[in-house]
Design brief:
Number of strands: 10
Shape: globular
Number of helices: 4
Strand content: 35-45%
Distance between the termini: 52 Å
Structural class: alpha+beta
Largest sheet: 10 strands, antiparallel
């Protein structure tokens, strides 16, 4: 039995090494944050979507879109505007592409209206008639949609508000996030609306 467990662990480690072959890797909190922010910006996500702490390593395999971020220890963050507590494991992984993160691991969400945490399996940017939204899909298929502004840093919100207020006409009709509560919908609520 112990041999089978050791063999399984070795197989998983080898698969993990293969998954990371050819990666760009950054070490240390400051370098990792720069690396993560660059990836988030390139993929169209706000910087505040992954508020990880005490990062020690992160990497990206451009050929496959595989990314990982390692923290010293698990962390939690409460997104006030989305009314959601999110837990991040020691390692967070995903496959990224423009507007989407899929096959995510290490992220659990506990929205206020659920009594149990959900493992976040996918995030995607969707265009809504009222602006851009981020749709979160759990491993159980339960989903939640929130205004993208709920996950912006303060700097991003200020810039967004300036653009929205007409100082730049090159923006789509997004919301300023002041009333995010009315934009949070579960999959079930969306079905009732359709």
């Amino acid at each position: 039995m112990a041999t089978a467990i050791a063999d399984a662990a070795a197989t998983m480690a080898a698969a993990s090494d293969d998954e990371r072959a050819g990666a760009e890797i950054a070490y240390g909190c400051e370098e990792c944050l720069k690396h993560i922010f660059a990836i988030l910006e390139e993929m169209g996500f706000p910087k505040g979507i992954l508020p990880l702490k005490d990062l020690v390593e992160c990497g990206r395999v451009r050929a496959t879109g595989f990314v990982w971020m390692k923290q010293k220890k698990p962390s939690e963050h409460y997104f006030e505007r989305a009314k959601t507590l999110v837990s991040y494991g020691e390692e967070v992984t995903a496959y990224v592409e423009v507007g989407k993160m899929r096959k995510m691991t290490g992220v659990k969400s506990k929205p206020v209206f659920f009594w149990f945490p959900l493992t976040v399996a996918e995030m995607s940017i969707v265009d809504d008639p009222n602006g851009k939204e981020i749709y979160f899909k759990s491993s159980l298929g339960v989903g939640k949609e929130c205004s993208i502004t709920a996950f912006m840093t303060e700097e991003e919100r200020i810039k967004f508000k300036e653009i929205k207020d007409g100082k730049n006409d090159d923006v789509d009709n997004d919301r300023d996030g002041d009333n995010v509560d009315d934009k949070v919908k579960t999959t079930e609520e969306k079905s009732l609306d359709d």
